[in-house]
Amino acid sequence: MTVKRVHFLVIKSWIGPLVATFCISLFLLLMQFLWKYIDDLVGKGLEFSVISELLLYAIAGLVPMALPLSILLASLMAFGNLGEHYELISLKSAGISLSRIMYPLIILTFIISIGAFFFSNNVLPFINLKMGSLLFDVRNKRPDVSIKEGIFYNGIDGYSIKVGRKNKSTGQLYNIMVYDHSSRMGNLDVTLADSGRMEVTKDKRNLILSLYHGKTYTEVHEDKRRKTKESHPHRQDKFSEQKVILDLSGYGLKRTDENLFKNNYQMLNLKQLSVAGDSLKKAYFEYKNQFSRNLLRTNLFRKELKNDTNIIRNYDSINSTISFDSVFNAMLPGEKARVIDQALNYARTTKSYISSSKNDFVHKKKWINRHEIEWHRKFTLSFACFILFFIGAPLGAIIRKGGLGMPVVISVVFFVLYYVVSMTGEKYVKSAVMPAWEGMWVSSAILLPLGMFLTYKAANDSVILNFDSYTDVIRKFFTSMKKKK
What we know:
It is a single chain. The protein is built from 13 helices and 5 strands. It is an alpha+beta fold. The chain has 2 domains: about 250 residues, no CATH class; about 90 residues, no CATH class. Strands 1-2-3-4-5 form a 5-stranded antiparallel beta sheet, with no helix packed on it. Helix 6 runs antiparallel to helix 10. It starts with a helix and ends with a helix. About 0% of the residues have low confidence.
């Protein structure tokens, strides 16, 4: 068998599992997305086109998480199948090393990693912009009118509606109570009806509530000059049929201008993140210098001087030349008490100013860290695809088990390890515990030596993960114990 045919066999055995596991991973992650946002989607009467658009953006946004997992699982399955059917042993006996067998997949993985970088840098910000604006609109869309029996419904502005009983087959409503708050002056208008019907106009802008056989109680709002403490005039109107038109204009899906979201760090590419990060750092240091100047000018030196720069520059020399204790001891007792009270007030003011400024510093620093996290994430996605391939391929060659059994278990374990370490590092960066480059690359730094170790063991035909070898050792141990007895 020529080397080209070997490469074709390896590529063919890897592409199929890659596509299958990629689709399965996307499906599982999409179910997680729906589970997370199910409360924002249900009961709002969204059109099929809106739901389809949102799901399309969600699927595209989940590619960075699904791609490394599918590469890991596909590599495990492909080389596990080759090892299970003794094809790897045959190729090695023919003089073809494991590195030579993995060579075409290394090239393919490198190409996929480059493509993942361009996807993360150019496509993903656009997808995040579209999805973020659409998800914002869906979340702020008011739910459809869904009035339950015996519960007040307050979803319509200015009205509170309660229905005692509903006939689901005919749509008839019974024991209806309507509170009108549209005047913004309290419960001045209450309508009670024995029955009624509810229907939405064709343009879905209004809700027509037809009421039958009821009464309307209206509290008359008198002039303050005529109104006394004991007088509570009201008007009562009886009706056999009455129609109440309620405005539903706020229930439609309103698309927000996407330009409002385009400056978010998730919607920026590498170049834009660099520019935004530099601007934020510059503003942060300017705010820090301004804080120092204000602290010296308004709290340490209360008198306004013309040159603040000289105060800051000569602060140490001023502090060394003035003997504050001698000045204080030369004062009269009354002056000392007044100075102490004034100093306490200054200290409290300074403490309050420092506390509020500290919160601003923390917020600005976290915002800078988020931009740095997103900048490094563009590279960690591509590098994760490459590393997980060098974990999956040698693992498959070592365990020699194909299918969706053992490879799935091992893939999930390694991917969960990678994901947990990545999220922990990212959390530490957001909390300013460690720098961005360290927190975002800690998972790669842990898994890279592991991939190199597994590749070395697989190339030397190690049985480190061959569970039959461990069971043989245990079986021999118990057999020797029985012989001794």
